[in-house]
Amino acid sequence: MNPLKQRIVLLGPPASGKGTQADRLAQEFVTPHVSTGALLRSECERGTPLGREADAWTCKGLLVPDELAVRIVATWMQENGPRFLFDGFPRTVEQAKHLDTALAAIEAPLDLVILLQISDEAIRQRILNRLSCLKCGATFSTSLHGIAEGQACSRCGAPLVRRKDDSAEALEQRLKVYRELTLPVVAYYERTSPAILHRIDAGMGSDAIFAQLSTLLTTL
After folding, report:
1. Residue range(s) defining the domain that contains residue 213
2. Model pTM?
């Protein structure tokens, strides 16, 4: 049996299914799922200074500054060790460089970088139908799951809401930021680590995507 990949980065545009797939992979392979977005939303919900700083950016559909994101991830790694499934991190080339430097220092380089690809139109449809749980980070589709805003999250019971950055205006800004800042991360890994970079069509059904991801995690 091939060894399981230990250090994985899952990239993709907004609503490409990163969080959903990362959750499934974490449960199937008992790998720590780390979402900087979920960590920041937790800080925002609790009203901490860090959360207020992050909220000033995310409510406008903007990425948090590299320094803030890197500080959160570095702290997590110090506390939990170099085994992870990063969901949506790194989001910029500078973040990717910081991550490589941190992993090189402990001689634990990335094993896998996966890009989920999907059209802008499909993203817009998903965003307009998305409800989120601010407590546990789960997301649901009003059309697929037959739920409405205010109903209880099936995981933790907290009320489901439409995130402030799920508006049409904020989405267009998020897509613009993704193209300008995050897509270059893919080019960075193509240049520095082409052997570990893989692309998956995120327009497929969830089970088909999961099957492809599982294969990548368990094969050389």
Report:
1. 7-120+182-218
2. 0.80
127 inside domain: no
Q: Which of 18, 24, 41, 126 is catalytic?
A: 18
Residue 156 inside a domain? The answer is no
Tally of domains in the chain = 1
Asked about 130 being catalytic, the answer comes back as: yes
| 91 in catalytic set | yes
Distance CA 93, CA 156 (A): 35
Condensed to tens digits (0 to 9), the pLDDT of residues 6-40 reads 999 999 998 899 988 999 999 999 999 998 877 77
User: How would DSSP label each residue in 158-201?
Assistant: PBPB--GGGSHHHHHHHHHHIIIIIHHHHHHHHHH-GGGEEEEE
Let me know if 18 is a catalytic residue.
yes
Q: Domain holding 96: CATH number?
A: 3.40.50.300
